[in-house]
Amino acid sequence: MDKEHLKGAAKQAEGKVKEVAGKATDNKKLEAEGEVDQAEGKARKVGGDVKDAVKDATK
Asked: Which of 51, 19, 55 is nearest to 34 (CA)?
């Protein structure tokens, strides 16, 4: 797991916490921020996968 994978996983976890907190407090803005953070985290993880694939292909 490289740095992008770790950053992505951390962002997803942060987003999940925000989403759950938003739902628990009926705060739609916080809930939406959490969903956005989770999507960003997934994108970072995919970016890490692509980066790994390029590294493997060029070896």
From this structure: 19
Q: How many other CB atoms are found less than 10 A from the CB of residue 58?
A: 6
In the 8-state DSSP scheme, what is residue 25?
Answer: T
3-31 pLDDT, tens digit per residue, is 888 999 999 999 999 999 999 999 999 99
Report the candidate in 42, 44, 35, 32 with the shortest Cα–Cα distance to residue 15.
35
Tokens 């960003």 found at = 40
pTM of structure: 0.85
Helix, strand, coil % in the chain, rounded to nearest 5? 90, 0, 10
Q: Where are the domains of the chain?
A: 3-53
Cβ-Cβ contacts under 8 Å for 17 (sequence gap 6 or more): 34
